[in-house]
Design brief:
By secondary structure, the chain is an alpha/beta fold. Helix content is 28%, strand content 18%. α10 (290-296) packs across α11 (304-314) and α14 (379-392) crosses α19 (555-563).
Length: 769
């Protein structure tokens, strides 16, 4: 049969098989290739730094510049294949990047809940476990020739504005939560084999990136004007934790400018901060075509050669896109760049590839080399996706209580709403092909007989043509479950929301169905961002509200398990739910975090906003009750100093010590907290610890300093130990961007329990001026 006569489907499968078979062999240093296998850079016994230097010394300039881009070219004379750096694994192996594809032996991969949902679990061990599974599946697909080993995930930007379309990808609005998520997920992805990497993760998008397309301003043209205080206090915190605590192998710079300089051309951000101060052991990559954007769109440089030179000299090692391959050689010819600058960039990328084992010969002979199709979508992986969804669901309201539903009294259930039979919508964006789906309708159907009506044709809900059938179903059922909310047509990359209400006529449908319902009405919301559901919160006919985020492939099963009490909900909101009025006159382009009465500016996130909310950060109910008692905690903690100066640089009127003047080491506040379950149901409690620093214009109202997860059977008590690092978590940032420890009384909060801790300076020596 001639190739022209093949059907497109058969042809694509054949091409996929050919490409996979070609890629299964070694990326480099093939032991069967006698001309290259003996080269020094192929010797596993040599230090990686020596191997990298040997390889760079063998490359021509023309070969080098073609390795500066994500679609890195092959170097056949040295036995090195081409490599596509761009793969994604935000919440499961994804095919968004060209480095990964599904088909053949790998038709799909486990699709975990979207990050905003998993963050609501406040469970760091869960995040690491998900990372381990995702990297197992990624390695298996790499071994099968259908994926890469460099994954540009996670997204750890701050969910600053509730309208941001990509907020769903983030761990929420709190920098400590986002940074902790980053560190644990990255550890799960990268493994714990010393310097060797299982896969290479990447924390993105550095920095102050949280606007896609709002009111005529898009991310390619946006200049984020950010104070030094907010950079240090908020936007950079997750990235610093990702690098220092997670040891991430990569950081991605963003499209936007920060204070007039494109992030991918800013040596202060890249070379001085990420690599210099934080000591990144890895490579810095641009967001896709960012270098081209700051030349062509932002007009930051006069020539493309200058753009290439600025990016590389700023500390960029890899360009997602072709720009550096096209213009770096000419930049050298024009004297804007030196070949040693190219070499320095390649040191960072090649070192990561060697840590991944890509220059160690046959993949099957390496650690993780035995992973294959059997390790993708395995039952235990899918069970973890279900458990993650259960832990991320947040019970916002439970009047009565009306939940959990009863098997005996709620045998027939009306399941209504545009998300009621959702499948692909449940996995959000930057997703792959799931192993399978359990929709809400299917999940609820495992517990009760269902009457299904969608009520709205889609989440836009432009008319009421389907309302009648939905209202009739509610009249006939023992209970009504409305599955409403958003999807990627409302919030997504390059799609910021216009407002916070439910789209179209969804609110009208909810209210009319609740009014007609014979039994309790339960509202289940799918969304990444917060929704102003004040109407439902205040409507006594709406008995309960659940937020499921985008709960992943098993989301429907998890929702049903919570509704019927198989799972006792323990999730907490990782972002504030604001009323619509909050955003009515608030520009997304205003990056200031702190409120200002003078400017009539409300502030951002629970740390700085004091106005009315629909539901606060950290809100989440349970089917049982937990009581906290602090049984052990210091009242005074001495902060040892390296010395003392009388100038205002050392202290501010003696009330705030520079962190770099304190002996931080492992200086911490230890708490012992008893958690008692006073209800009748076993439950897993999410304990959030906040600190309110001494009053001052630098300090947030309160800030998250620790969190823990503890399972407590009904009627019993468990003790939880908490350690709060003083310099990291009890510090604040002054207007110059300097982190300081306020001296005085800090109030630690756990729900309604407060404990005062007085921090006092202890001078140990003299700092030389």
């Amino acid at each position: 049969m001639g190739i022209a006569s093949l059907t497109p489907t058969i042809l694509s499968l054949l091409l996929l098989l050919v490409a996979s078979r070609d890629a299964i062999g070694p990326f480099a240093c093939d032991p069967k290739d006698s001309t290259t296998a003996a080269l020094p850079f192929c010797r596993v016994s040599m230090p990686i730094s020596d191997r990298v230097n040997d390889l760079i010394g063998r490359l021509t300039l023309q070969e080098k510049v073609k390795l500066l881009i994500s679609g890195a070219a092959a170097v056949p004379r040295l036995g090195i294949k081409g490599y596509e750096w761009w793969s994604e694994a935000l919440h499961g192996v994804s095919d968004v990047g060209p480095g990964t594809r599904f088909g053949g032996a790998f038709p799909g991969a486990t699709s975990f809940p979207q990050v905003i949902t998993t963050a609501a679990s406040f469970n760091a061990t869960l995040w690491e476990a998900i990372g381990r599974v995702v990297s197992d599946e990624a390695r298996a697909m790499y071994n099968g020739g259908t994926a890469g080993l460099t994954y540009w995930s996670p997204n750890v930007n701050i969910f600053r504005d509730p309208r941001w379309g990509r907020g769903q990808e983030t761990p929420g609005e709190d920098p400590v939560l986002a940074g902790t998520y980053a560190a644990f997920y990255v550890r799960g992805l990268q493994g714990s084999e010393g310097d060797r990497l299982k896969v290479a993760a990447c924390c993105k998008h550095f920095t102050a990136y949280d606007l896609d397309n709002w009111n005529g301003v898009d991310r390619f043209h946006f200049n984020a004007k950010v104070s030094k205080q907010d950079i240090e206090d908020t936007f950079d915190v997750p990235f610093k934790m990702c690098v220092q605590d997670g040891n991430v192998a990569s950081v991605m710079c963003s499209y936007n400018e920060v204070n007039g300089v494109p992030t991918c051309a800013d040596p202060n951000l890249l070379r001085n901060t990420v690599r210099g101060q934080w000591k990144l052991d890895g490579y810095i990559v641009s967001d896709c075509d960012s270098v081209g954007v700051f030349y062509n769109t932002q007009h930051y440089t006069a020539t493309p050669e200058q753009a290439a030179a600025d990016a590389i000299k700023a500390g960029l090692d890899l360009d997602c896109g072709p720009f550096l391959a096209q213009h770096s050689e000419d930049a050298i010819k024009k004297g804007l760049l030196k070949e040693v600058d190219i070499n320095n960039a390649l040191v960072n990328t090649l070192r990561v590839q060697m840590r991944l084992g890509m220059f160690d010969g046959e993949p099957s002979a390496q650690p993780y080399g035995k992973l294959g199709p059997k390790d993708v979508c395995r039952p235990s992986n899918q069970e973890l996706a279900l458990e993650a969804a259960r832990q991320g669901i947040v019970l916002l309201k439970n009047h009565g209580p009306s939940l959990p539903l009863s098997h005996l009294h709620h045998r027939t259930v009306a399941v209504i709403g545009p998300n009621s039979d959702a499948t692909v919508s449940m996995i959000g964006n930057y997703a792959g092909v799931a192993c399978g789906y359990t929709s809400p309708l299917k999940g609820i159907g495992n517990y009760a007989k269902t009457i299904h009506q969608i009520g709205c044709a889609d989440v836009a809900c432009r008319d009421d043509m389907l309302f009648g059938a939905a209202i009739d179903a509610a009249r006939r059922a023992d209970a009504t479950i409305l599955v409403m909310g958003l999807d990627q047509s409302i919030e997504a990359e390059f799609r910021d929301r216009k407002g916070l209400h439910l789209p179209g006529r969804q609110q009208e449908l909810v209210s009319k169905v609740a009014k007609a319902s014979r039994g309790p009405t339960i509202l289940v919301l799918m969304s990444g961002g917060p929704i102003d559901v004040s109407f439902a919160k205040n409507d006594p006919r709406i008995a309960a509200i659940l937020w499921a985020g985008y709960p992943g492939q098993a989301g429907g099963a998890a929702i049903a398990d919570v509704l019927y009490g198989t799972t006792n909900p323990g999730g907490k909101l990782p972002m504030t739910w604001y009323p619509q009025e909050y955003v009515s006159n608030l520009a997304m382009t205003n990056m200031a975090m702190r409120s200002s009465l003078r400017r009539n500016y409300p502030g951002r996130t629970y740390r700085f906003y004091k106005g009315p909310v629909v539901y606060p950060f950290g809100h989440g109910l349970s089917y049982t009750n937990f009581v906290h008692t602090i049984v052990g905690a210091p009242k005074v903690v001495a902060v040892p100093l390296d010395g003392h100066r009388h100038s205002r640089n050392a202290t501010v009127l003696g009330k705030a010590i520079k962190v770099n003047h304190a002996r931080c080491n492992k200086l911490s506040v230890g708490l012992q907290v008893n958690v008692k379950n006073t209800g009748s149901k076993d439950g897993t409690h999410t304990m959030l610890v906040f600190s309110s620093p001494p009053a001052g214009h630098w300090a947030p109202h309160k800030q998250l300093v620790a969190f823990a997860k503890v399972h407590v059977p009904a009627g019993s008590e468990q003790q939880v130990g908490i350690s709060i690092h003083v310099c990291k978590f009890l510090s604040v940032v002054d207007t110059s961007g300097v982190r300081r420890i306020p001296i005085g009384v800090h109030h630690l909060h756990i729900d309604n329990v407060k404990h005062p801790v007085s921090l006092q300076a202890e001078t140990l020596g003299v700092i030389k001026s």
